[in-house]
Structure formats: structure tokens, C-alpha cells
Amino acid sequence: MAVLLIVEDDTATNVAICEYMRSAGHITLSALDGEQGLQIAREKSVDLVVLDIMLPKRTGLEVLKELRQTSNIRCLLECKEITGQLSFMIKEILDTSRLDFTQEKQDAETFDLSERLPAICEPYQLIAKAKGLDFSFSIQGKCPVHTSKKSLEKILSNLLSNAVAYTKPGCKITVILNARQIKIENECTPIPPDKLAHVFEPFYRPDFARDRKDGGNGLGLYIVDTLSKALGMPYQFEATKNPPGMCFTLYLP
Predict the structure, then answer these.
(1) Can you name the residues that pair with 183 across neighbouring β-strands?
(2) Do 244 and 187 form a contact (C-beta atoms < 8 A)?
(3) DSSP helix/strand/coil, 176
(4) pLDDT, tens digit (0-9, with 9 covering 90-100), for 105-139
(5) Where in the chain does DSSP place strands (E)?
């Protein structure tokens, strides 16, 4: 159960979001303008603030800037056209930020990732084909691992989803698995070094990926980073030159 602050000046939308989140088991607080939202966020113990962008008195961006400077409260900017996505995004970030690292290790089991990888890749192969992408994977022998199967599969799913989202038609996505690591490469616009440091922050998307039709909600790599740390799996994410693109390497336990 989380405490959510909904800052939305449209009363009907505010009430609807609050009712929906309460039905999901969360506690909700509400404000109808940015100034009131800031005051509540300062005075109450809040897990997540959902902000409309266009607010009276203080805009959502102004509220977001001040909260980032004065607290660690997580914020979600809300536009009317994406209200229907809010519950999923809130659940993702709260579930991830509240991970029990000890429990993740207790849930560990031994399985062969080489046997699971084709099923993990299959839905993304279908999406890639529909987008005109060249998606291939190579399994170089058996790959027994001892870890949380559910969490590792979520890491890989987010990485594959990210690769498919940012690869242009006619370009390649390559997945290579061996006993020590799994590598996911995709041909795309390389992320500049100054942006690369921020891509694992929640809701961050590079300037060239602001179009929601092309990118996701900015949570995928944040989830990857958090789960990888929970499982004790180092990773490397770097740009490639020939061909230009990005390469994510996850080192297996």
C-alpha cells in the first residue's frame, strides 16, 4: 500500500484517479493547484506525486523542480491523453522502488537460461518483424544460472523492449548468450556520454526519444538497473561505432 498525492485541477479527473487508486489498495491525497500540492507534499509522508502539467498557481513542471530540489519524493507528470496509463506506470515504479533485495536472493533457483531465452525473445521477434527490423539471437551452449527466474526474465524483457522501441526499420537487433554473459546490441542513434549517465533514472528519455510513439515511458532501464543490483549482476551499457548503435552486456551469476 502506497500514499499517492494526486495534483490535478480538473475535479472529475482528480476524483476518478483517486477512486481508482483507492480501489487498488492505495491511500490517496489530492490537490487542485500546484501551490496546494507543494504544501501537502511538504507536510505529509508521500510515496509518489502524480502531477498534471498545466496547473493554476504553480505549474506541474515548477512543482516537480522544487520537489526534486528539496525531497526524494518520486513524481509522475500526467497529461490528459495518458491518464489511462497511470495505474500501470505507478505500479511499475512502486513495485521496483520497494524491492526486497533479500527476498530476491531467497527466491533464487537454478535453471538453464539457454532453454528460456527463445521464449523470452519470441514476442519481441514478432514486434520486430512487424516494424521491419532484423532480429536474431545466438545461443552459444548451455547457460545454467542460479538466480530469481522472474526477475531475470523481467530484466531481459525490458532490455528487448527498449531495443525494439529505439531501432529504426531496416536495422538490426542481435542477442548473444554464452555461459558468462548475455549481450543485446541494436543499431540506433548512439546515446551521447552526457545523456548515458541519466538513462537509468525513472522517466528519463533522451531528447531524441521524446515522441511516445517511438519510445516507452522511461521506466525500462530504471527497472533493469534496480533488478540487476538486487540480483548482484553487473552490467555495461555503451555506444558502438560500427555499426552505430548501443550494446548492453549483462554479466550472469
Answers:
(1) 176, 249
(2) yes
(3) strand
(4) 667 899 999 999 999 998 888 888 888 999 999 99
(5) 3-7, 27-31, 48-52, 74-78, 109-112, 134-139, 144-147, 172-177, 181-187, 235-241, 244-251
Taking the C-alpha atoms of residue 112 and residue 184, their distance in angstroms, rounded to an integer, is 18
Half-sphere exposure of 58 (CA within 13 A, CB side): 17
Q: Which residues contact 90 (CB under 8 A, 6 or more apart)?
A: 2, 4, 21, 48, 50, 76
Task: Indicate the length of the chain as a whole number.
Answer: 253
* Residue recorded with cell 538486487: 230
Instruction: End-to-end CA distance of the chain: give it in Å, rounded.
Output: 32
Q: Is 90 in contact with 84 (CB distance < 8 Å)?
A: no
172 phi, psi to nearest 5 deg:
-110, 150
CA–CA separation, 59 and 57 (whole Å):
7
Do the beta carbons of residue 208 and residue 192 sit within 8 Å?
Answer: no
Q: Which amino acid is at 157?
A: S
Question: Which residues, at least 6 apart from 147, have a Cβ–Cβ distance to it below 8 Å?
Answer: 108, 109, 231, 233, 252, 253
CA distance 29 to 21: 10
- Is the pTM here over 0.70, yes or no? no
Q: Which residue type sits at 35? A: E
Quick check: 74 pLDDT over 80? no
